[in-house]
Amino acid sequence: MATEKEIKFSIDNFHHIRDRLKELGFNFVDRYFEENVVFDFQDKRLKTQKKLLRLRSIRDRHILCFKQPTDASDSDLKSMEEIETEIKNRDNLIVILKNLGLAVSFKYEKIREKWEKEDVVVCLDILPFGDYLEVETKGDMDIIEVAREIGLDLQKKDIRNYHEINREKRKELGLAPDDNFTFEEWKKIRQDLNGVLEHGY
Questions:
Q1: What confidence tens digit (pLDDT) does each residue in 154-181 have?
Q2: Whole-number Å distance between alpha carbons of 116 and 120
Q3: Please, which contacts does 93-102 make with residues 24 or more away whose CB atoms are closer than 8 Å?
Q4: How far apart are CA 134 and CA 136, in angstroms?
Q5: Are 4 and 52 in contact (CB under 8 A)?
Q6: 3: which of 66, 69, 79, 148 lies 20 to 30 Å off by Cα?
């Protein structure tokens, strides 16, 4: 079981970020679309315990991930224990989970561009509701220092997950609560808001 530490930043433009990552010796890994399905029991016990069971699909790969909070006391970072395993048959896994009493809790999508250097991963994420940069590591690297080197404003760091950010964004815009966030849904929201919420994708 690995411990993942991460911080996020809302980003207006990725162009200068890419240039800075190259200067710092980060290597471009890949850019891809993600479809994520989160499962929980009917009583939402996983959510209540701040645990996450997620099935992520990237092209023809399917990865099951379980996350739970660590005992880490550093409030400047989000720290989670994480276990991942690749699944060959997505449909069969979903049937198994449903037979165990789990159901789809919500779905979300993002476009992720991944950069790596040693044990640090920087992700440039396009979410349906905005663009974000995530710095994460499963090692001992000081990701606060990495964020500083990239030139990010540490006063604006965010340790919330994307589900929490989605809920807050919906609340700010006066939208009904919904844990799902997909590009098709938010495309309609932007149209209904008549340009109030701009997006780069």
A1: 999 999 999 999 999 999 999 999 999 9
A2: 6
A3: 93/55, 93/62, 93/64, 94/37, 94/55, 97/39, 97/53, 101/41, 101/42, 102/39, 102/40, 102/41, 102/53
A4: 6
A5: no
A6: 148
Q: Which two tokens stand for residue 68?
A: 């739970």
Structure tokens at 20: 């800075």
**CATH code assigned to 2-192:** 2.40.320.10
Q: The pTM is what?
A: 0.87
Span 84-98, pLDDT tens digits: 999 999 999 999 999
- Note the Cα 198 to chain centre separation in Å: 20
Q: How far apart are CA 147 and CA 41, in angstroms?
A: 37
DSSP symbol at 34: E
Beta bridge partners of 187: none
Which among 175, 87, 61 is positioned nearest to 128, based on CA atoms? Answer: 175
Residues 6+ away with beta carbon under 8 Å from 97: 39, 53
Break the chain into its structural domains and give their ranges.
Answer: 2-192
Residue 201 CA: distances (Å) to CA of 14, 122, 168, 173: 11, 19, 21, 20
